[in-house]
Amino acid sequence: MKIDRALPHWPQVAAEIRRRIEDGAYRAGERLPGTVALAAEFDVSQSTATRALARLRADGLVYVVSGRGYYVADRSLSAEE
Description:
Helices cover 52% and strands 10% of the residues. By secondary structure, it is mainly α. Strand 1 and strand 2 form a beta hairpin. Helix 1 crosses helix 3 and helix 2 crosses helix 3. 25% of the residues are buried.
């Protein structure tokens, strides 16, 4: 995915990760690439990658395991609650 430099970067990164989750490229319980790897992949700053993941966390798509990283949330569990 190519980032449109004329638009804010973090929403674009978040949208691409969301798409990958919804398409099954990242599965429930799977650890996501770290912020350094995401920043390198999308050619953005690490803080931009962190902000994108924070948005996905707020949306309930990912969760954090302290000291381990970000993981894809199991959305079927939240749908049952």
